[in-house]
Structure formats: C-alpha cells, structure tokens
Amino acid sequence: MICTVTLNASIDKAYQLSEPLRRGAVQRVARVINRAGGKGLNCARAVRTLGEDVIATGFVGGHNGRMLTELLAEDGIPEAFVRVAGETRCCVNALDPDGCSTELLEPGEPVALADVHALREAVGRLVRGASVVTLNGSLPEGAPTGTYRDLGTDARAAGARVLLDSSGAALLAGLEARPALVKPNAEELAQALGREVATMAEVVEAARELQARGVADVVVSLGSEGAVMASEEGTFRGIAPQIEAVNPVGSGDTMVGAFAVALVRGLSAPERLAFAMACAGANCLSPATGSFDLAVAHRLMDQVTVELVA
Ligand SMILES: Nc1ncnc2c1ncn2[C@@H]1O[C@H](COP(=O)(O)OP(=O)(O)OP(=O)(O)O)[C@@H](O)[C@H]1O
Ligand SMILES: [Mg+2]
Question: Ligand 1 within 6 A of 29 CB?
C-alpha cells in the first residue's frame, strides 16, 4: 500500500483554449476537465493507474472538499482525508492549443494546529498498512514549517519509506526525516541550495550534494530535458522521449507516484528512473492534469535513455 499526503489539495480545472491566452481579452473555454488535484492526488492517480494499492489523505473542506472526494471516488482512489473548516481551493490551468500552460493557483485557506495534529494521527494509523508514504506539495498557512519532518519521521519510525516533493523551507525541514527520495525541479533545487544551478554539471553536483545529506535518491526533474538522479547506485542522467506535450502540469507528481510504485516493485535505480520518466512523459500527452494512459507509458519506456554519469 502507498499512502499519499496532500495538505494543500485543490479542484484542478484544466481549461482547453482554442486560441492562445490573451491578457485583457474575453475568451471562451473549449473544454473543461475537473480533477481532484493537489500534487499528492496527481501522485495517487499515477499509483492507481500503475495498479498498486493507494490511499489518499490530507485536508479537505467545504463544498469543494466534497466535490474533491467525489472526483476521487470516480478515480477509484480510497481516501482518509481530515475534514477542516476552510473551503478547499481551486486551481486553473489554461492550456493553449500548442500545449503552453498558464496556471492560476489559489492560496488555499489556513488550517488550525488541531487539524495538523489530527493529520499526524491519521498518517500514523495509515502508515501501519503502508510501505511507502509520499509527502507532496506546499504547506497550507497554519501548518508549521516542520510538518513534513514530523510526518516523515513518524512514517520512517513505522518502517515506511518516505518520498518528499516540496519546495523552500518545507523541503529543507523535511530533509531531516531522511527521505528515501526527494524530487525537486531545477528551480526548487536552486532555491533549496541557495545558489544558481544552470548547467548539467551543476545539476549533477547539486543532486549529489543533497544526496550526501542523507537522502537515498535525489531526482532532479528538468522538464523536456529529462532528469538527473543521484542514488546509492550511482548518478544517472535520463534523457526524455521527444514528444509534443499537450499538458505537462503534474508530470513531476506522476514521476513521484511512479517512483513509489518502482520502490514497491524493487526496481534498480536506473530502472526506477526510466519507469518514472516514461510515466511522466505519458502525463504530458494526456490533456487532463496529473493522469496518463498506461499503454502510452509502456510505449515511451523504450524511448527513455538512462546513462551513468558518475
Ligand atoms: N516536454 C516534455 N517532454 C518529455 N518529457 C517531459 C516533458 N516535460 C516533462 N517531462 C517529464 O516529466 C518529468 C517531470 O517534469 P518537470 O521537471 O516539469 O516536473 P515539475 O516541475 O515537478 O512538474 P509538476 O510540479 O507540475 O508536476 C521530467 O523529468 C520529464 O521526464
Ligand atoms: Mg513538481
């Protein structure tokens, strides 16, 4: 069982436009796809698509919270969310015909400390049946900076492996739980280390530096440029398949879900990277945010190249 934790869940609205987004104009939306969103739920959908057992937790509230749990049920994902007073947010992803996406992310309402304690208890219960726990996304206002450190430490003490995909102070504090994997993109990595990470050599060096802080796998995702993975088995560079992306949003989240599955299945480090990149590539080819077609992922598997760099 893989347990995903989403503290800042949202209803994700993918607006497909028939012409590019124009500032200040009135534009009609050709098609709307609503999804139970937030990074952990994109991740949960990837796990479900790959056929492993998953349970989703985090915070939901209000009308949007009810809609979110209904959407999750449609996706076949069991949930044990903590209900909170604040309304769950909506996030809009406006997609131009060429795949260019403009995201508008609501901040979300604050949570109370009592909610954070309730979540810690919920994760503590769920982790008894889970071998992997994923901690995804930003923290809502009201959740202490050390929330991922605490959740991660509890999960590890219960024998689960922890995958962390966050940024800024939440990511840095979460490193103290010694996760099995962190997956920053280049911008998040640069922010975490407080320095520019521009060239491939700098990415490799930065990934290894973070790995030396006690993280088993550091995966730096680089969009269409693929990914770099510093692991106990060496440092690898993954070259992404050449595709025409339709909706790349949630590719990193899909990657984390695929890594959780790959860990459960005992794949080697280069196999984990190739598997996760194929699933992330398939996510780029699906118009709905954070979902992919398994057959497409299988097809892309042969088009991902992984090489040992150090
Ligand atoms: N245009 C693309 N072509 C091929 N593969 C892509 C493309 N964009 C993303 N990917 C794949 O998805 C992975 C994750 O993408 P990215 O680095 O954009 O993640 P991210 O910034 O964390 O995204 P998000 O937070 O929205 O999930 C990449 O490492 C790559 O394997
Ligand atoms: Mg990401």
Answer: no
240 lines ligand 1 (CB under 6 A): yes
Whose CA is closest to atom 29 on ligand 1? 221
Q: Which domain holds residue 185?
A: 2-308
To the query of whether residue 253 is one of the catalytic residues in this protein, the response is: yes
| Nearest one of 125, 99, 98, 108 to 37, comparing CA atoms | 108
Whether pTM exceeds 0.90? yes
According to DSSP, residue 293 is labeled -
Calculate how far, in angstroms, residue 125's C-alpha sits from the geometric centre of ligand 2. 27
Domain count of the fold of the chain: 1
pLDDT tens for each residue of 203-261: 999 999 999 999 999 999 999 999 999 999 999 999 999 999 988 989 999 999 999 99
The enclosing domain of 186 has a CATH number of 3.40.1190.20
- What does pLDDT average to over the chain? 96
Whole-number Å distance between alpha carbons of 184 and 165: 6
Ligand 1 and 179: CB distance under 6 A: no
Helix segments in 30-167, DSSP class H: 39-49, 62-74, 113-126, 147-157
Q: Which atom of ligand 1 is nearest to the CA of 290?
A: 27
Cβ–Cβ < 8 Å for 283, 291: yes
12, 253, 293, 302: which one is catalytic?
253
- Which residue's CA is minimally distant from atom 2 of ligand 1? 224
